[in-house]
Amino acid sequence: MTPGKGAQGQGSPAALFQDWLPAAGRSTGQSLPWLAAQRVQARARVRELGVPSPKSEGWRYSSLSPLLEQGFRAVGEASGEAGSALDPGALQTLLIPELRSHRVVLVNGRFDAALSALGTLPRGVRIGGLRDSLARDPDALEGLLTSVAGDGSHVFTAINTASLDDGVVLLMERGALLEEPLEVIHVALPASADARGHELAPPVAHPRLLFSLGDGAQAEIIERYVGPGGGPSCTNAVVEIALGRGALLRHRRIQDEHADGFHLSGVYLSQGADSRYEGINIGLGGRWARTDLVMRFTGEHAECDLRGLYLAGDRQLLDYHLDVHHGLPHCASRENFKGILFGKGRAVFDGLVYVAPDAQKTDAAMSNRNLILSPNAEVDTKPQLEIYADDVKCSHGTTVGQIEPEMLFYLRSRGISAGLARRMLCLGFAGEIIDGLGPAALREHVTEQVGARLEQAPL
Questions:
Q1: What is the rounded CA–CA span in Å between residue 430 and residue 145?
Q2: The whole model's pTM is what?
Q3: Of 304, 320, 327, which Cα lies nearest the Cα of 392?
Q4: Which of 48, 301, 412, 459 has the highest CB neighbour number within 10 Å of its CB?
């Protein structure tokens, strides 16, 4: 792979990632030895790993060229602080009406207190920006921050750690209950011009989210990635989740960035004994998007339920990688992802369930089903099981199909337009995933977004 037009002759592709990093000493928490050490280690790992090779198994189906060609630079380095401002009126157009929540807004990765609306929080629940939390109570984060993600699954997690500056922190004490959802809205803005009218390099933001639930705590989190468009931008997010014994987290993630958006996110989950995680991932927007879901069990009798829906059209690549590691006995996991592709859309599903020799009585099932609406659409699907225990219940499967012509003909014969008929049939296929989204306002919003795209989809 060679540097794209954004490289500006800077040499090896690995050097491109230096533009993604803030200047040394610019990030928050510089006086904290433990955080400074982690950043130094992460920078070294970025240099060590460099740009993933197309021959790497995890990147075989996802070319990085479109991403590298943009010439992204870290927020605050070339895009300017002014480029990270969002008008309150513009935020209103991005909200979901009637969705009641504790709201946190990140603009290009930075916590915006003026746009956030946390309200009154229950006893034992702390929510705030990462930068502010590091300034006010760094001891509460030492030993938690970066402990779940570690070195990560690829270089982009290391870049996030090396750039670690702001994001969201949710800390819940033992038995705490968050009755209303926590809604985290990631707003990606393109670069603006400088004072002399010169176009600035497009920004890349590195938000870090930390969700720590104590024993028996319960919460629902809604993450939404959005943006008004107007030029390329990139979000490189890392989400760390630590669930204590018997904790329950319902986690809904909707990636609906603008057509020029680039998206990377890594979700790293550590589950204690008897805990339950219910994660739903919806991929709708962006030009190029990759999501990694990395799950680990740290206690027995834990349950992990992962579901997803991706909708890829022209000029889109949506890529999902799952790494579910059963290292202990008596744990269960479910992975159910569905894809709908049209035009020249591309999608990747690469899922791995690993069962260690000592993980007896594991119960795991992985499914990936895809609906292809046009001859030029493409999906690469690879569900995998690696089983080294002999007393387990595991299965996996994948399908790629088309809309049944008889069903489409039946609806057309009743006077229903081709677009509306396609919408109805595809929503029936996707309904199993959408119905699990929780709040009615969120379900209705996603249903409308999916339906509108399908009705207008080029075939």
A1: 35
A2: 0.93
A3: 327
A4: 301
Distance of CA 11 to the CA centre of its chain: 30
- Nearest to residue 255, comparing CAs of 56, 57, 450, 27? 450
Single out the residue of 301, 75, 111 nearest to residue 189, CA to CA.
75
Q: What is the pLDDT of residues 234-285, one digit of tens each?
A: 999 999 999 999 999 999 999 999 999 999 999 999 999 999 999 999 999 9
Instruction: Give the whole-angstrom CA distance, residue 204 versus residue 78.
Output: 10
- Burial (Cβ within 10 Å: 0-12, 13-18, ≥19) of residue 309: buried
The pair of structure tokens assigned to 142 is: 């030492």
Q: What is the pLDDT of residues 280-318, one digit of tens each?
A: 999 999 999 999 999 999 999 999 999 999 999 988 999
How far is it, in rounded angstroms, from Cα 18 to Cα 111?
A: 24
Would residue 139 count as lying in a domain?
yes
Which residue(s) pair with 66 in the sheet? none
The DSSP annotation for 354-414 comes to EE-TT-TT-EEEEEEEEEE-STT-EEEEEEEEEE--SS-EEEEEEEEE---HHHHHHHHHT
User: Do the domain assignments include residue 374?
Assistant: no
Packing angle between helix 155-162 and helix 33-49, nearest 10 degrees?
A: 150
Answer yes or no: is 457 within a domain: no
Per DSSP (E only), the strands in 188-258 are 203-205, 208-213, 218-226, 233-243, 248-255
Cα-Cα-Cα-Cα dihedral sign, residues 194, 197, 201, 203: positive
- Are 280 and 251 in contact, with CB atoms under 8 Å apart? yes
Number of domains into which the chain is organized:
1
Q: Copy the structure tokens of residue 110.
A: 């930075």
Q: Which residue has the tokens 């990462």?
A: 130
Distance CA 54, CA 381 (A): 17
Are 134 and 29 in contact, with CB atoms under 8 Å apart? yes
Cross-strand partners of 126? 171
Q: CB count, 10 Å around CB of 198?
A: 7
What domain range includes position 214? Answer: 5-299
Under DSSP, is residue 308 helix (H, G, I), strand (E, B) or coil? strand
